[in-house]
Amino acid sequence: MNLNRLRTVDTPLNYMWRKRVLIREDTERFLKDLNLSETTSDIYFYIAANDANVTNILTHPYFKYVSLSTVKRSVLQLKTKNLITVTTDPQDRRIKWFNINEEN
To answer: What is the CATH number of the domain that holds 72?
Structure first.
């Protein structure tokens, strides 16, 4: 059996792998030399695409294996690098909303 031929067949898994590689390359190119972990990068893109706070991130299925401490650490890193801004909810001061810093 020729195993090399089997690897060139376009299966759904091959397709998904190629997509993941392309997304990773685009992510690294976009974030350049910021040295963000994969989880921190994912949280950054989530904030860019959604109304985000810690609860929204933790309850999203994509982040089901990410702990509260990891989310907090990632948010702090993004804030320290001036990639996001944090605002307090006017009705509930316990809630902090995250937004992309448009200046960067």
So the answer is: 1.10.10.10
